[in-house]
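Attaching the record inline, Q. Sequence:
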Amino acid sequence: MGMSNLERDPQETICAGTEAEGPVAELLAGRDVVLGGTRGMKVTRTLPNRDRRMVGAWCFIDYYGPATHLMSVPPHPHTGLQTVSWLVQGEILHRDSVGSEQLIKPGQLNLMTAGRAISHSEESLRETVLHGVQLWVALPESQRNVAPHFEHHQALPVLGGADANVTVLMGELDGATSPAQTYTPLVGAEISLDGGAEIRIPLRPDFEHAVLALTGAFDVVTETETETGTGTATGTGTEEARDGAETFLEPGPLLYLGSGRDHLSLRARRPGRLLLLGGEPFEEEIIMWWNFVGRTPEEIAAYREEWTTGTDFGTVDGFDGSPLPAPTLPVTPMKPRGRHR
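Structure, as predicted:
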């Protein structure tokens, strides 16, 4: 869903890609966030994470559902990013300030490029089960002020057979290229496996990668070779994975795989779906606060002021309600930090 950060007191998040140091296997536990107040929708946020802030240009992951919910997210702003909406179950109506109105359904990609400024709303037309994932992609400095625009893709390239297939949402994978607009070298794909099915997916070694289970349960082969030929892997709240080991993955944590891999091997313990995310390590520092991605605290403050008083973000027609007010800026001054901890 194109929903955004509706926390009442969002904290500044300063992100930069950490250097991809080769293949690893780290289970990154998410944190539960309730959007829209205590009675709002609960999501599991695995990016940004304490241990890994980005995977390529992917800088934000909220996984939600399955849960019965009546969604009504008022118009709110975005800058410097793309929102990627992918549903497993349910329907959401998207409206934005460039005049788009689109019903999002499972298996269809909604991609909104905020560029210099956009606003949008999301709502379900009735109380229904919602299940899916919301992702953000940071735009590079050279493209972050592009004109805002919206894409909806019903037809996406699919690889594989009946019991194991891959839908390419963003970027290119094994010769199949998504029609979605990208601004940095990256990949996003949904992998669907029947129970007991296995798949081997080619990867770009210069990309860092991660996988997120949406449904089902999987074994992920996590061989990790070092210069001495011994495999090591560390995890957050998980057992160590050794050379040729298998990491168990089900909905919840994000499995960060690092770089230097030329393939990914999966086996389904239970039928289900996973997201594969990857890209070249993002070299630029970014500040994420509320629904803005910027480079300096002054920029973030200016975005907030413009949303509160100005017109740069346009208007969203058709939503029955007032725009979402911006939270108060944090008391502690926002400070850019280096890309390394």
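The chain has a mean pLDDT of 87. The longest helix spans residues 297-309.

More tomorrow.
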